[in-house]
Amino acid sequence: MGTFFVEAIVADPKNPERREPLKLLVDSGSTYTWVSSALLRQLGVEPAERRRILTIEGKTVERGAAEILITLEGRTLHTLCLFGERGDLEVLGAYTLEGFGLTVDPVQRRLVPAILFGAAA
Asked: CATH fold of 5-113, please?
């Protein structure tokens, strides 16, 4: 699958005026969205908990995690975000994609609406 980036805006949910645009690598293989610790702290976001993560290299690491506001394609929602450290990529992960009801079109290298699974109606 080809890789691509999307424009996003991240913000502190307690103070949404504090926001910052950035480009995130779309990585549907990553469970969570990762943003640099420095940027999140600059916005006033502090870790609320820690999560254990298995990296693509097969290492288990711990990262801080907190809820942030993220804007994609004109829509803004809350999502869980990990605090990236030196060497970590800034990525848009599956948890956020599913929250927005989006999936990846690997041929066109863009986000598209997804048909998601739900309970029986």
From this structure: Cathepsin D, subunit A; domain 1 (2.40.70)
